[in-house]
Design a protein that fits this description.
By secondary structure, the protein is mostly beta strands. The chain has 2 domains: 14-182, Chitinase A, domain 3 (Roll); 189-325, Chitinase A, domain 3. 6% of the residues lie in helices and 28% in strands. It has 4 helices and 17 strands. Strands 9, 12, 13, 14, 15, 16 and 17 form a 7-stranded antiparallel β-sheet that branches. Strands 3, 4, 5, 6, 7 and 8 form a 6-stranded antiparallel β-sheet that branches. Strands 1-2 form a two-stranded antiparallel ribbon. A hairpin with a 4-residue loop joins strand 4 (96-105) and strand 5. The longest helix is centred in the middle third of the chain and has 7 residues, at 132-138. The chain is elongated, with a radius of gyration of 21 Å. Belongs to the FKBP-type PPIase family. It catalyses: [protein]-peptidylproline (omega=180) = [protein]-peptidylproline (omega=0). Residues 65-78 have a biased composition (Basic and acidic residues). Residues 50-59 have a biased composition (Polar residues). It is an enzyme of class 5 (isomerase).
Length: 326
């Protein structure tokens, strides 16, 4: 897998991104841990101990809240408080949820904020893809809600923490604005014609939580000299433009040997929001593609920035599912 530095949790594919002067941390990646246990949904304030109450939160839904620092000893059990009740869809186990959030330590030190990135995060809830505190607190809540979560260490990152931002045995405080339940699968129809023989053969079958199979062509270990893209599943939603951000599931392999470079289905189970201009070949390869589509893109070495060309000297092939377009 291709991860950002600063932890072992899945991130947006840094290796494919074009260089920028400053790098922003995106997604609810600080929440992702390899824990698979799933508990029942929390309802209201589910902490039974009398230690520190959830910190006071001010600000309106949809805008970054102000969270006071915790007072006294932090609670030893998960505490959940619905600050604003929404009337949208109910979050169910396995849903991909789009949300804005901010997280801070009990002492008030902020360690992550989607508002700073100016983009909501999308993550799968209730299946062990995020910390236990989120899985237990957010399943059963409705979109449009603002939820405060106080997660003790055993519902967060435990004794090890998440250095350097989260020390071991930290109690974490989150405020989460649940915006919507995001689509997790494309809904287009397979294109009724043979696939381009210059490209790897990619399955048009849409399987829940599973990447399509990518069959590399025999005897060919270098991408064609020019960028090639082909829509193999045709959707009928909004078109991708040069400045679009797409909600996507994708898998990526090297042309030589078909080495797996990235797979969002395997990373955290949730689709990712990615500006098409960020990944070489996507801006042109996805131009005009409609939401609901699956596209195969072959990106030759020359399409990558100079500092990445050695790493991707044989080229890369992507299979991109376009779930939504912004």
């Amino acid at each position: 897998m291709l991860y950002f530095s600063g932890g072992s949790t899945p991130r947006t594919p840094r290796a494919f991104r074009k260089p920028r002067r400053t790098r922003t941390r995106r997604l609810a990646v600080l929440l992702a841990v390899p824990l698979l246990a799933v508990s029942a949904a929390a309802c209201g304030d589910d902490g039974s101990d009398n230690k520190g109450s959830p910190p006071t939160v001010s600000g309106s839904w949809g805008k970054k809240p102000k969270i006071d620092k915790g007072e006294g000893d932090p609670p030893s059990e998960l505490k959940t408080k619905v600050l604003k009740s929404g009337d949208g869809q109910t979050v169910r186990k396995g849903d991909a949820v789009s949300a804005h959030y901010v997280g801070q330590l009990w002492n008030g030190k902020e360690f992550d904020s989607s508002w700073k990135r100016q983009m909501p995060a999308t993550f799968q809830i209730g299946t062990g893809k995020v910390i236990k505190g989120w899985d237990e607190a957010l399943v059963g809540k409705k979109t449009g809600s603002r939820v405060e979560i106080v997660a003790p260490p055993n519902k967060g990152y435990g004794k090890k923490g998440q250095p350097p931002t989260i020390p071991g045995n930290s109690t974490l405080v989150f405020v989460v604005d649940l915006e919507k339940i995001a689509p997790s699968e494309i809904d287009g129809k397979p294109v009724d014609k043979p696939q381009n023989p210059q490209l790897p053969k990619v399955s048009t079958k849409v399987e829940k939580n599973k990447a399509p199979t990518v069959q590399m062509p025999k005897g060919k270990e270098t991408a064609p000299d020019k960028l090639i893209s082909e829509t193999i599943v045709q959707g009928d939603g909004k078109k991708v433009g040069a400045n679009s951000t797409i909600l996507t599931h994708f898998t990526a392999k090297t042309w030589k040997g078909g080495k797996q470079l990235d797979d969002t289905w395997a990373q955290n189970g949730a689709p990712q929001e990615i500006p098409v201009a960020q990944i070489p070949g996507w801006k042109d390869g996805l131009k005009g593609v409609k939401a609901g589509s699956r596209v195969v893109i072959s990106v030759p070495q020359k399409e990558f920035p100079k500092e990445q060309r050695k790493q991707f000297k044989d080229g890369v092939v992507f299979s991109v599912d376009v779930l939504d377009v912004k």
